[in-house]
Amino acid sequence: MAEALVVGALPCRKLPSLGQLPSLKSLRIEGFSQLKCIGDEFYKNEDDRTLHVAPFPSLETLQFEDMRCWEVWNLLAGLEAFPQLKKLQIRECPMLKGDMVKQILMRIFSLSLDAFKVYKLSMIKFDECSNYTDMSLDGDSLSLKGCEWLEESTFMATIIHHLTCLQQIEIYGFLSALSCFYFLMMEKPYI
Predict the structure, then answer these.
(1) Looking at the record's lineage, which domain of life comes first (predicted)?
(2) Which of 125, 124, 106 is closest to 163 using CA atoms?
């Protein structure tokens, strides 16, 4: 199976175990209106205490949409889940806070095999969005789109420190990022 769409039903409070599908490349999950937490069950079968394959070994696109109660996303400790992930979208998940989104993005990004090839970074902040996050890694370009959480200078500094080949930065929609990039220019004058 290369592609899957999982649509939630009202009483469903857990996601199915999908992490061990070795050829899954695209996964869209939507409408789990009662789900509050994504945990170990997402990565492996609850009856199986060991993982035979790193979770989601081939997954390139992951989308979550319309999950109104989702608050927590736990990644498995010590495992390199999502090593091939190139696109992550989170839409209409208002309870999933910016700090959680930043942690997930950083963890997935730091494990990405392609992160070290990035030459161009685009950061786009939307003023009118309340529940939108988008990370796209396309060849040598990384695009981050989102709301106020994207503007935090610590988050931007951490992202940039992982991009050892970065040559070009594009910033759209926020001014406070400029002070962060001035500081970073002192550390990485080649940008």
Answers:
(1) Eukaryota
(2) 106
In the chain, the number of structural domains is 2
In whole angstroms, how far apart are CA 113 and each of 65, 78, 82, 162, 188? 26, 16, 10, 12, 22
Residue 108 resides in a domain: no
Of the candidates 81, 64, 80, 83, the one whose C-alpha atom is nearest the C-alpha of residue 72 is: 64
Cite the DSSP H helix spans in the chain.
98-111, 153-162, 177-187
- pTM of the model as a whole: 0.79
Q: Is residue 74, in this structure, part of any structural domain at all?
A: yes
Backbone dihedral angles phi then psi of residue 104, each to the nearest 5 degrees = -65, -45
Beta-bridge partners for 143: 122, 136
Quick one: how far is CA 120 from the chain centroid?
18
Q: Model confidence over 41-88: pLDDT tens digits?
A: 888 876 666 556 688 999 999 999 999 899 998 877 766 788 888 888
Distance CA 34, CA 134 (A): 23
Last residue of a domain, one of 43, 67, 96: 96
Does 73 lie in the same domain as 24? Answer: yes
Cα(99)–Cα(137) distance, integer angstroms: 21
